[in-house]
Amino acid sequence: MASKRPQLSLPELYQLKWLLGGMLALISAWTVLYMDVEAWLWLVLISLAAPLVMAWPALILRVPRGVHRLAFPLLVGTFAIDLVLHVREPLSSVIRLTLMLMLYRVITPRRRRDDLQLILLGLFLVVVGGVLSVSILFAAQIVVFTACALGLLLVVTLVDAMEQGLPEEGRTTEAAWMQAGWGRLARRMRECVDWRVAVLGGLLFAGVVGLSALLFMAIPRFEISNGLFLDRMVSRKAKSGFSETVQFGDVVDIQRDTNVALSVDVSDRSQMPALPYWRMLVLDEYSQGGFRMSAALKSNLEAYREQTAQIEGDVLLRANRAVWTFYLEVGTSRFLPLLGGFNQLTFESPQSAGLNHDLRIVSLRQMPAKMLAYRVEGMQFGPTLGSADQMAGSGRQEAMGEGKVPDFLELATLTPADQAQLAAWVREINAPADNPAEFARRASAWLWRTHSYSLQSQLESVPGDPLMRWIASRQPGHCELFAGSFLLLARAAGYPTRVVLGFKGGSWNAHSENLTIRNSDAHAWDEVFDRAANLWVRVDPTPGSVAVGEPVNAAGGEATLARIRDDSWTARFDSLRVFWYRRIVSFDQGSQIALAHTTKKLVERHLREFKQALRQRFEKVKHWLQSPWDVRRVSVWTAAALALGGCFCGWRFYGRGAWLRWRSGLARNGLDPVRREAGRWLRKTAEAGLKTPEEAAVRIDLERLRYGPRQAWPEPLAVFRRAKKTIRQARRRSA
Amino acid sequence: MTTKLIARDAVWHGSASGSPDVRDRTHRWRALLWSILYPRQGQRILPTVPGTLLIAVALGIGMAAYNTSSNILFIALSLLLACLVFSGVLSWLNLRGVAWRLRLVPPLRVGLEQLVSLELRNGKRVLPTYGLWFDFTATGVGPVRRALGGRLDPQTEMRVEWTLRPAKRGLLVVQLVAVGSLFPFGFLRKLIGSELRCEVIVWPAPVEYRRFSADSWRRPGLGGQKTTAGQGGDLLALRAYAQGDSHRLVHWKASARLRRLMVRQFAAEMQTGFSFWVTTSADIWTRPEQFELLCSFAATLAEDYFRAGRLAAVALDDEPSQPVRSVRDLERFLDRLALAAPRAPSSQSYPGGAARRRLNLLTFAPDGARGVLAYVDGIQTAAA
Question: Of A12, A523, B55, B93, which has fewest CB within 10 angstroms of its CB?
Answer without folding.
Answer: B55
